Amino acid sequence: MVLQHDRPTLSTRIDAVTGGRRLRRLRQHDWSRRLVRETELSPADLIWPIFVREGAGADEAVPSMPGVARRSVARAVEAAREARDLGIPVVALFPFTTRDRRDDRGSEALNENNLVCRASRAIKDAVPEVGILCDVALDPYTSHGHDGVMRGGRIDNDESVEILCRQALVQARSGCDIIGPSDMMDGRVAMIRETLDAEGLRDTMIMSYAAKYASAFYGPFRDAVGSNDLLKGDKRTYQMDFGNAEEAVREAAQDIAEGADMIMVKPGMVYLDIVARLAAEFGMPTFAYQTSGEYAMIEAAAGNGWLDGERAMMESLAAFKRAGAAGILSYFAPRAAAALRRG
Ligand code: PBG
Known about the structure:
Blueprint: H1 7-18, H2 30-36, E1 46-52, E2 60-61, E3 69-71, H3 73-86, E4 90-95, H4 115-126, E5 131-136, E6 150-151, E7 154-155, H5 157-173, E8 178-181, H6 188-198, E9 205-212, H7 219-225, H8 246-258, E10 262-266, H9 272-282, E11 286-290, H10 292-303, H11 309-323, E12 327-330, H12 333-342
Parallel strand pairs: 1-3, 1-4, 1-12, 4-5, 5-8, 8-9, 9-10, 10-11, 11-12
Antiparallel strand pairs: 2-3, 6-7
The chain binds ligand PBG.
């Protein structure tokens, strides 16, 4: 019984059971911890999602996402400048669309002067060093809040794909560098690639939301883009079932075969197993989306003083790198990049 040993005997016993391999040895100093750290987050790993709104003037707070706001196009350009200065390579643009610009076909998605297109052009013009990612999906534009179009009460895959291809084209022509199909329709990556190539847009990249789950962790995002009150039913006929991992492998394989340059898993924190698995299995640049709900969870707890928000932010982002992600879409991007630069 250990308690009966005197100290030297105890130490000898511990050396015997550990074989002298004392793993705490490397954790003694800040310098030794830094020396052996396996993965490290950098501003270059971050993609900053930005919400854009019509009109000019001050930012509009999104109550369910403390610290996140809907910005005018001019303020979105300022965000892109901030991204450049912080070393964040890419901003992702999401439009807040009021009810009057929505219809059941999401027609506004095809308007080359819609908010996302205007913001893309303005950012490309002012800050060409920063990459622009745009979501391809109809939910910011439909009156029913779904990512595709409805026919007979169902989301019609092929008809939706046809519209999504045109949406991708309109966005690419406005300066979007990376098309991010987030709609989960079948065959859309190949059809989008074909459409872009046919129009001479061979350099436009595709980051597919390869494994996107039907998730409760998108709630605050739907507030931010104005879809929450409109959404009829749920998205389970196209977004994935959270019980499935093998299916994520099939989804990713399919998107890669269809021409995706990069793949993404979403949500992120709750699906780190999928991130790790896809990164290891395909060796493709694999991204993770730390979604609005995951952000809100940390912010809400931090706001109540229940955890140290700054530390939780860094720890949560580091987890993605450890899992093998090439990068992370996160609303923390500017704060995390600033913290990383401070060291
Ligand atoms: C649109 C889209 C969603 C998100 C990104 N693109 C919402 C959804 O699918 O309902 C969620 C992002 C977030 O929660 O931060 N298809």
